[in-house]
Specification:
Helix 1 crosses helix 12, helix 2 crosses helix 12 and helix 4 runs parallel beside helix 5. By secondary structure, this protein is α/β, with parallel strands linked by helices. The protein is built from twelve helices and ten strands. Strand 7 and strand 8 form a beta hairpin. The chain is globular and about 60 Å long. NADPH dihydro-nicotinamide-adenine-dinucleotide phosphate (NDP) binds next to helix 1.
Length: 335
């Protein structure tokens, strides 16, 4: 077997703790999949003493994420801390400059600093892997980057936020108030550390930007998307839609128009029961990609939560373990 892939892990919250747990408990199976052992060698969190359902106490704890990223004994940095700027960005920069591949679930950081981070990736020949950044358990990044690489994409649309979909479904199906549904989503680990990112539509916009950059043009920016969230939707609105045989969903869409410009939007929509997105319920997400020659392709799956997000992070780690030796440039190449 090849030498171990040595992992530096930042964040042991909802996602990070589950990734660490699986890397320990499923070590044999995952290493067999990867073709080499996968080893966490050091980690960073704010609080080294918090109980997390996973015991990394025998490994070095590093207070500073950037210091962890710079360690010579790691091959890849797995950033599961969050935040568009600050320590997450600093650690990502340090890792890429030191030619360490980066795995991240941080769509806020990617949406804001894509050009900067991919310039570093290109310059230093270090890959950025970000399957977990969009729709957690749905492998949509792989589908756009690899499965549909030979297609001309015309439209990407769907439900991209588990928290909002959970809230809207809970209000419709169980008649509970917005604030109570949001609390449930937070307790289940679906919401962002700052849940206003979810309910005001920004998390959806961050994901739409990542998809639009992948599917259309890396130069597309967040400022091009009008964003409206679900904050003002009341139980009465949701119940009235239900009585009319409809469902309210937070829908994201990006379309390439005939003149080569893009029409993009994040907004709540009242959908007929027959609409394919209407039955997508709870933390589930759905994405439809219209493209030629494939025509249309829809992916549905869990869009938030520890297990589904860990699934995506592990896929990226395994990809790097398998192909690291072949990498001569960034694994992601823009269209
Ligand atoms: P959590 O808030 O549960 O966990 C964040 C972790 O980062 C905690 O362990 C925290 O440490 C650590 N952390 C925060 N600041 C620092 C710092 N300055 N130095 C070191 N460690 C720090 O977040 P999630 O696990 O929910 O999310 C992590 C990332 O994954 C985010 O980018 C999020 O957007 C993304 N994501 C989340 C999904 C989900 O369903 N939750 C789905 C897809 C993506 P401590 O525990 O000590 O406070
Ligand atoms: N807060 C996000 C959501 C996590 O609810 O969809 C998954 O990206």
């Amino acid at each position: 077997m090849r030498r171990p892939l040595r992992i530096g892990l930042i964040g042991l919250g909802v996602v990070g703790a589950e990734v660490a747990r699986l890397l320990l408990v499923e070590q044999k199976t995952l290493s067999a999949q990867a073709g080499r052992p996968l080893e966490i060698v050091a980690y960073s969190t704010r609080d080294p003493h918090k109980q997390r359902g996973v015991d990394l106490s025998k490994l070095p704890w590093v207070a500073s994420p950037a210091e962890l990223a710079a360690r010579e004994d790691i091959d890849i940095l797995v950033e599961l801390m969050g935040g568009a700027d600050g320590p997450a960005l600093e650690a990502a920069e340090v890792a890429l400059k030191a030619r360490k591949h980066l795995v991240t679930a941080n769509k806020a950081m990617l949406a804001k600093h894509w050009a900067h981070l991919f310039a570093l990736s290109k310059k230093h020949h270090a890959a950025i892997m970000f399957e977990a950044s969009v729709c957690a358990g749905i492998p949509v990044v792989k589908v756009l980057r690899e499965g549909l690489a030979g297609n001309r994409i015309s439209r990407i649309s769907g439900i991209l936020n588990g928290t909002c979909n959970y809230i809207l479904s809970a209000m419709a199906e169980r008649g509970i108030e917005f604030a109570d549904a949001l609390k449930e989503a937070q307790n289940l680990g679906y919401a962002e550390a700052d849940p206003t990112l979810d309910i005001d539509g920004w998390d959806t916009a961050h994901k739409l930007i990542v998809l639009a950059k992948l599917g259309f043009d890396p130069a597309i920016t967040l400022e091009q998307i009008p964003v409206k969230g679900i904050r003002d939707i009341t139980l009465a609105d949701v119940q009235a839609a239900k009585v009319a045989g409809k469902a309210i969903r937070l829908v994201a869409s990006a379309e390439k128009k005939a003149d080569g410009t893009y029409a993009m939007e994040v907004a709540p929509k009242v959908l007929d029961a027959a609409h394919p997105l209407a039955p997508v319920s709870g933390p589930m997400n759905a994405i439809t990609i219209d493209a030629q020659p494939v025509q249309s392709c829809t992916l549905i799956g869990p869009g938030a939560g520890a297990g589904p997000t860990a699934s995506a992070v592990l896929a990226d780690i395994i990809d790097l373990a398998r192909f690291d030796i072949l990498l001569e440039g960034p694994l992601y190449l823009p269209r």
